[in-house]
């Protein structure tokens, strides 16, 4: 099963890190994670992602004292448990995914930009042609962008692999990598709110159930007391 919790911080300003240091997981990440983020809003968004993670752990009655470590390539994971998570944010929306298998998630806000110029710089040539020939070129661009980032986060390598080194193909209601090297990873797309594109990458061995839960900041804080 895959669970995704998300919230919008638009009208709630900045979360204060000191207000959440009573939570062991937040306290354990203070020095190596949050203290390194100097911009208040960026720190607030990162903090919210981990608060959503604590919420999901509590909802599933999972030990809140799990230790989070970081892979050599920078992906955070639980040291002892075979429980996986991934966090993404764009603008004021933060989403956190929790699963029993490896997962990658990315969310992007659709904004006015020269998306074709970006695609020509970063995407595979076949994907550039699809965008040029699409009647919904901006929509396709954001689906491809979020899919690529979610896939690289799923693999745990971030943007260390070039975005044009792999391409996607559509299959029924999901996307997959067009390569004999990876036949099990799929991408599914969702639209959480207007102009927000979300992509989810996971191994499609058992068609997991995917649950979404939107929380207000007030509801999240009440759950964490």
Structural description of this entry:
The chain is an alpha+beta fold and 225 residues long. The protein has two domains: 1-101 and 208-225, Alpha-Beta Complex (Ribosomal Protein L22, Chain A), CATH 3.90.470; 104-205, Ribosomal Protein L22, Chain A, CATH 3.90.470. 31% of the residues lie in helices and 28% in strands. The chain contains six helices and eleven strands. It has helices at 24-29, 40-59, 115-122, 125-133, 137-155, 217-223, and strands spanning 2-8, 68-70, 76-78, 84-90, 93-99, 103-109, 168-171, 174-177, 185-191, 196-203, 210-215. It has a five-stranded antiparallel β-sheet, covered by helices on one side. It has a four-stranded mixed β-sheet with strand order 4-5-1-11. The protein has a two-stranded antiparallel sheet with strand order 2-3. Strand 8 and strand 9 (185-191) form a beta hairpin. Helix 4 runs antiparallel to helix 5. The longest helix is centred in the first third of the chain and has 20 residues, at 40-59. It is globular, with a radius of gyration of 18 Å. The chain starts with a strand and ends with a helix.
């Amino acid at each position: 099963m895959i669970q995704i919790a998300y919230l919008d911080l638009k009208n709630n300003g900045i979360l204060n890190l000191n207000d959440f240091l009573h939570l062991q997981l937040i306290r354990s990440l203070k020095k190596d994670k949050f203290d390194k983020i100097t911009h208040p809003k960026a720190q607030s968004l990162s903090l919210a992602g981990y608060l959503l993670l604590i919420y999901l752990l509590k909802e599933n009655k999972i030990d809140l004292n799990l230790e989070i470590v970081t892979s050599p390539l920078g992906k955070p994971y639980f040291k002892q448990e075979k429980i996986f998570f991934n966090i993404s944010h764009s603008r004021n929306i933060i989403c956190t995914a929790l699963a029993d298998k490896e997962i990658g998630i990315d969310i992007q806000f659709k904004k006015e930009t020269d998306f074709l110029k970006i695609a020509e710089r970063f995407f595979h040539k076949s994907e550039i042609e699809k965008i040029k020939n699409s009647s919904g070129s901006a929509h396709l661009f954001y689906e491809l962008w979020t899919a690529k980032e979610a896939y690289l986060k799923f693999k745990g390598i971030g943007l260390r692999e070039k975005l044009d080194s792999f391409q996607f193909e559509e299959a029924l209601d999901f996307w997959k990598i067009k390569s004999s090297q990876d036949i099990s990873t799929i991408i599914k797309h969702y639209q959480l709110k207007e102009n927000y594109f979300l992509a989810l990458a996971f191994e499609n061995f058992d068609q997991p159930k995917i649950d979404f839960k939107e929380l207000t900041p007030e509801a999240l804080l009440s759950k964490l007391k």
